[in-house]
Amino acid sequence: MTKNSFRVACIFALATTAALTACSPPTQKSQEQAETATVPRYLSAKLVSTDCGIDAPADPPPGYSKRLGATADKMPASIAQRQAVGADRPIAVTVAEKVAPGITLINPSSRKPFYLVNNDKEVIGEFAGDYFSFMQLLPNGNILGSSKMYSDTFRGGGGHTGCIEEYRADGSLVWRLALATDDYIHHHDVQKLANGNVLAVIWERVSTDKAIALGRNPEHVAENGELWFDGIVEVNPMTAEIVWEWSIQHHLIQDFDPSQSNYGVVADNPGRLDINAIKFNPDGSVGADWTHVNTLNYNEELDQIIFSSYYMSEVFVIDHNTTPHEAQGPAGDFLYRWGNPANYGRGDEESRKLFAQHDVHWLPQGLPGAGNIMIFNNGIEPERPYSTVVEFTPDMNADGSYNLGADGAYGPTELAWEYAPREGEEFFSWFISGAQRLSNGNTLVDHGAKARLREVTPEGDIVWEYAYDDGADGPHMLFRAYRYPEDHPAVLAIISKSAESVER
Fold it and tell me: Any idea where the domains of the chain sit in the sequence?
């Protein structure tokens, strides 16, 4: 039993007559009994298919008039201008002795193929799939990708994909999962776990009537009569079964409708999201895509998941060490949140730290800053029209719980590190983008809205820079980019396969 699971057991036991025994350290015998007990298989109401039926890609990225190889002739000027901020600066000169070793995976949005470049900026391998949104290289040498599926219901949701696939480097399929129906769809992010399962972000379509029953102000509902609630599912790709799931709709608080069961004081419930904390569109309307989660990241040591909400300008941590049923109750409430305490009534605009952020993740063990949390802080017009990268250390206890600060909000108020570009090097990537800590302590920064990468030192010096351009007219985009070790099995396999293709 982990520390987290023991904590959950104690919380439950305190409400029972067995509190004294349940909160005592488990004996070896009780552990063995728990391990051999028969647990009924969880049956989700959601179905997973293995047929993605990719007969048409999803809608084009924001501003494009066509799906692939699009031109910018019909792109709204406001979008084109925002994507070009900081893109006219000359490429920085490489400082080879300060560049972290490795091979960089380039993830062009709505383009293909994906490819590898070395630090000399030479393309040394590529991999083409079916309309990949993005891909990751796995430790076993395979490739994990999210592919786009056409959806009438979710076609207006930027970042929707629907299909998750694992490939070998030779292009052969290992498995395929379709998480796409009229009621839910996979979007944005996926991560493979050590047990072989995958965690994926989904949207769940909810009717306006149900949203109002959950305490939503009827004046603030989408015109199409529905709202999309973000959720996370864990899927076994070998059986195509959902084995664990969590949904934001089970962890809401509101102070609008006293007749509803989730009515309460928002500031007294930081573990829940105020259903009436809304980001309005410029015209005052409300979109169906309410929270817009754009990233998830799993911490195996803590058995926790962190995810990022674009519209809330906030990141959240939840406990993965729960049963699917427990995840619907208090055990599934937020363990921690950071970035915009005004969302839970414990801060104001001055205390806000995040602005439409992406790519939140724990820094892995073995890297400088390990255990800290890093985020690409995109920025928002007109409040903050520039981008930075932030790194911070949450106030966490040994048992995986988190502490509120003296001001009643989750800290910290001070950052461990921030990349704020110097004058003349500023950029503004209003959507997508990311950052990765490298082995030498540098950070790879993805200016996703204009498809430019820069590697910066802890002092903020640019030592390597790369611009993606496939020759098509118009702004290019990189959802993410990753640098892998030169001897990574997938890197070697893709390079070898590409070399064989050239020889033929």
Answer: 1-38, 106-177+492-504
